[in-house]
């Protein structure tokens, strides 16, 4: 890209997100899919945070604009391979929601729960996000249904979430779950919703192997196996060391 000084916009991050997703693997591809994911946004300007959020309680959902900070070093290409197409076909970057964009900016509609105070900081509690933990926030705006909800919108490429796979817990995972359940919001539902999207790489999704897969949620390691193409069994839930 060629830019002159006047073609640039100066942006400073206004906060950061705290989410259940400490690594990219297994984060849902869009918001609102894993509704059990709860987290919060911490505003950096604590002196003005209460004023900045005045009136926000009247909205049920918010737009969150954020930086794809974890992938920005990798740059961008005009054509990308969306995982939804199995990673084989290319599409123009602007025709996708790829993280590898000319300006690495993401946008997600999330459920607004409430403003709160955590460790003496004013925060915004949110739900259903698709953001990596510690994601820098560029802006927050109210979601306005009359204009933002386009009921006759079409999308041939990404028509629906995709088929959910079945998820269950074996006896060991079930008892580990009962140890952790009180300390992590909606943990069993969160694990189920994340795994039901089959986070394995696209080329694996029609395969059954004996492989032990692992993902991180909060500071927990979750391991599972596929018993058939449509069924994941969680077998181990432990604290990360
Ligand atoms: N809803 C947003 C959008 O459309 O702009 C994000 C869509 S993008 C396809 C979602 C993926 O971005 C997630 O599955 C995760 O892998 C990745 N992601 C989330 N937060 C990120 C971050 N801070 N840096 C890099 N990648 C991130």
Automatic annotation (TrEMBL):
It comes from Thalassotalea eurytherma. Pfam families: TrmO_C (PF18389), TrmO_N (PF01980). Keywords: S-adenosyl-L-methionine. Belongs to the tRNA methyltransferase O family. It comes from the Bacteria. Gene3D superfamilies: YaeB-like. The keyword S-adenosyl-L-methionine applies. This is tRNA (N6-threonylcarbamoyladenosine(37)-N6)-methyltransferase TrmO. Residues 11-152 form the TsaA-like domain. InterPro entries: TrmO-like_N, TrmO_C, YaeB-like, YaeB-like_sf, YaeB_N_sf. SUPFAM superfamilies: YaeB-like.
């Amino acid at each position: 890209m060629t830019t002159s000084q006047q073609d640039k916009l100066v942006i400073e991050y206004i906060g950061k997100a705290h989410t259940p997703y400490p690594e990219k693997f297994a984060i849902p591809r869009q918001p609102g899919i894993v509704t059990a994911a709860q987290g919060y946004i911490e505003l950096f300007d604590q002196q003005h945070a209460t004023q900045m959020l005045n009136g926000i309680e009247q909205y049920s959902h918010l737009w969150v604009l954020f930086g794809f900070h974890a992938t920005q070093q990798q740059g961008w290409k005009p054509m990308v391979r969306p995982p939804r197409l199995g990673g084989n076909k290319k599409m123009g970057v602007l025709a996708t929601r790829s993280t590898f964009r000319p300006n690495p900016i993401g946008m997600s509609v999330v459920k607004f729960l409430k403003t709160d105070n955590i460790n003496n900081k004013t925060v915004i509690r949110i739900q259903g996000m698709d953001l990596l933990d510690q994601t820098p926030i560029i802006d927050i705006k109210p979601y306005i249904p009359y204009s933002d909800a386009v009921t006759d919108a079409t999308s041939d490429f990404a028509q629906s979430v995709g088929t959910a796979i079945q998820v269950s817990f074996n006896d060991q995972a079930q008892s580990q779950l009962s140890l952790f359940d009180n300390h992590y919001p909606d943990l069993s539902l969160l694990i189920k919703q994340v795994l039901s999207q089959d986070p394995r790489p696209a080329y694996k999704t029609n395969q059954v192997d004996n492989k032990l897969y692992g993902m991180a949620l909060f500071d927990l390691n979750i391991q599972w196996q596929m018993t058939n193409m449509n069924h994941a069994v969680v077998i181990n839930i432990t604290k990360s060391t």
